[in-house]
Design a protein that fits this description.
Structural class of chain B: mainly alpha
Structural class of chain A: alpha+beta
Distance between the termini of chain B: 26 Å
Shape of chain A: elongated
Radius of gyration of chain A: 27 Å
Strand content of chain B: 5-15%
Helix content of chain B: 40-55%
Largest interface: A-B, 42 and 56 residues
Number of strands of chain A: 10
Number of strands of chain B: 6
Oligomer: heterodimer
Strand order of the largest sheet of chain B: 1-2-3
Number of helices of chain B: 16
Helix content of chain A: 10-25%
Order of helices and strands of chain A: HHHHHEEHEEEEEHEEHE
Largest sheet of chain A: 2 strands, antiparallel
Order of helices and strands of chain B: HHHHEEEHHHHHHHHHEHEHEH
Chain lengths: ~250, ~325
């Protein structure tokens, strides 16, 4: 009863207060929109929509995304322009470097690891000094039935067709400058391109499929020394390639 | 000292105070304020000055500034495309003739997310910190940032539409930028991802110019459209954490735009063109406590007010140097 006698004194809301209130609400809405837009970047990363092969020396995916400042200096120093930067569909991977090995692999044309030296933040770890220390992933014969060597077939002509833009440094052609792989045709009795062009000694060999000397067939065998540069994936003449790179996963040694 | 603290608080979002009390004026300022109360001949003076300005509108500083934005960004582009290696990298981090430079906000995001600090990044950050402290902090925004230039064009369209009464400037609370700054710093630290970099229009634009355009430009277009149709300069005024980072750098910077009370007619043309008009509150009639007042740290030193002021009451000022020259 006493409550009814003393109703709370409610001042009428002024136009100014109303405007300020709207302004604050609008600001909250806009702020939430900006934060929401940024957080959308989490989905492609969490769902692994785009699993990317990272450049030599890259930390594991999560610390790599954290450490990369998205400046692209690694892109600028690569002599074969193997390094590309991620786009909007990669979420937090926007501006983060990756290598699409099939279109242009890292073939260590730079001799040392120039991209690592260029990195200002250590996202490409400066612990990596030589190409043998790199561990981007590991090669895997994903389509053995398509492998020309396993079929006992040779290969003639440019590895990836006449108009493929891929570059590779052929030591015997030019020690210092990579050339177009389309300018370097082959004539092989038995295809061994993945072994022949591998820049790491002892990473991959071609083994006889059986002991019968009249049976030419061979199979590529990948060893621990493989650094996952992707040269074999790029040079493989069948399409889609018979050999691909599996990206390094957490838990695998650097 | 108090005025500096006030201007810092205003940068973080506090509303500018009301007209100061008479007792707060310095002696010189009081004399000038008193003199301005006599209306004698003022009308004629204002008319004459306005006629003069309409005949010779000045865009001196704006043109210099646009040239600066274009040249700096062009240097990044040609360094890569012509391989002349002057400025390698992009605005987030680069090497300028071999020396590490790193954007302060991008470095902060990386340090918070990665939680390990490499010496190169420290060198790059320190160099840039010193550089922008010397040049005035938010000078980065108006003299280098490519989004600033696009936003100025967007603002031009916005103002045209406003004058045609087709759109209305939906102003926001300036505290929003501080909130976003804290949220993005927290997100970087908590999630371990440089969350803000995914939507930083500066990084996106810089990379698009140097390495080629991509889908990420959609976000920049969305921001620009928002600024054209809804809120004038929404990103730079109310949101961008990069601006706040550089604003903090500029708190003690020697480079300022300085206001001189004596000839000011208090028409407010400067506040109408300014990106951050709260720094120009001092130009309101009766607000200046002293004869000369350096504008607060949120000022981007863009010079639009210097260009527009008909009485040269706003000028660039380099502390110490002016007395020497």
């Amino acid at each position: 009863m006493t409550d009814a006698k003393t109703p709370p004194t409610k001042k009428p809301v002024t136009v100014r207060q109303l405007r300020e209130r709207r302004q604050v609400l609008r600001s909250i809405g806009a702020g939430a929109g900006v934060i929401g837009a940024a957080m959308l970047g989490f989905f492609p990363v969490m769902k692994k929509w785009t699993e990317r092969l990272r450049p030599p020396g890259a930390l594991l995916e999560d610390p790599f995304l954290a450490a990369c400042i998205k400046c692209g200096q690694c892109v600028q120093v690569c002599p074969v322009e193997a390094i590309k930067l991620g786009d909007l569909d990669e979420g937090f991977g926007v501006g983060v470097p990756y290598i699409d090995a099939r279109s242009q692999a890292c073939d260590f044309s730079c001799d040392a690891v120039q991209c690592v030296l260029a990195c200002p933040t250590g996202a490409l770890s400066h612990d990596t000094d030589t190409k043998e220390q790199v561990h981007m992933g590991v090669a895997r014969l994903s389509r053995p039935k398509a492998c020309l060597a396993r079929l006992g077939k040779g290969f003639k002509g440019p590895a990836r067709g006449a108009d493929h833009p891929g570059l590779h440094r052929y030591m015997e052609v030019d020690r210092w400058n990579p050339i177009l792989i389309s300018d370097h045709p082959y004539d092989l009795e038995l295809c061994d391109l993945c072994v022949r062009e591998c820049p790491i000694v002892g990473a991959i060999t071609l083994e006889r499929i059986n002991l019968d000397p009249s049976d030419l067939r061979g199979t590529p065998v990948v060893f621990d020394k493989c650094v996952g540069c992707g040269m074999c994936e790029m040079i493989c003449p069948v399409d889609p390639p018979a050999i691909v790179i599996d990206k390094r996963q957490p838990g695998e040694d650097a | 000292m108090m005025s500096l603290l006030t201007s810092i608080a205003e940068m973080f979002g506090r509303a500018p105070g009301s007209k100061p009390d008479d007792s707060a004026y310095s002696e010189g300022a009081r004399a000038l304020h008193d003199a301005k109360r006599t209306k004698e001949g003022k009308k004629e003076r204002v008319a004459a000055i306005k006629a003069e300005r309409d005949l010779h509108p000045s865009h001196k500083w704006r043109n210099r500034r646009w040239a600066s934005i274009l040249i700096v960004n062009a240097l990044f582009i040609v360094s890569f495309s012509w391989d002349i290696q002057l400025i390698e990298g992009s605005l987030s981090a680069s090497r300028v003739v071999g020396f590490h430079f790193a954007d302060l906000n991008a470095s902060l995001q990386v340090m918070l997310a990665f939680k390990e600090i490499l010496i190169n990044l420290v060198i790059g950050t320190a160099t840039v910190l010193l550089l922008w402290w010397l040049l005035g902090g938010r000078t980065f925004c108006s003299w280098v940032c490519p989004y600033h230039l696009l936003a100025e064009l967007g603002e031009y369209i916005h103002l045209r539409l406003t004058s045609m009464k087709l759109v209305r400037d939906m102003a926001m609370h300036r505290g929003l930028r501080t909130v976003l700054y804290i949220v993005f710093a927290g997100l970087a630290f908590g999630s371990g991802y440089t969350v803000f970099e995914a939507i930083s229009p500066v990084g996106i634009l810089s990379r698009a110019m140097i390495y080629g355009p991509g889908l990420a430009l959609i976000w920049v277009v969305v921001l620009l459209l928002f600024e054209v149709f809804f809120t004038r300069r929404a990103w730079c005024r109310y949101m961008c954490p990069i601006g706040l980072t550089y604003g903090m750098v500029g708190i003690t910077s020697p480079v300022h735009v300085t206001y001189n009370l004596e000839n000011c007619l208090h028409e407010g043309d400067c506040r109408a063109v300014c990106l951050v008009p709260h720094v120009l509150e001092v130009t309101k009639k009766g607000y200046a406590l002293k004869e000369d007042v350096a504008l607060g740290p949120d000022c981007t030193r863009c010079g639009l007010c210097v260009d527009v002021c008909p009485t040269n009451s706003l000028t660039y000022d380099v502390m110490g140097l002016n007395k020497l020259l």
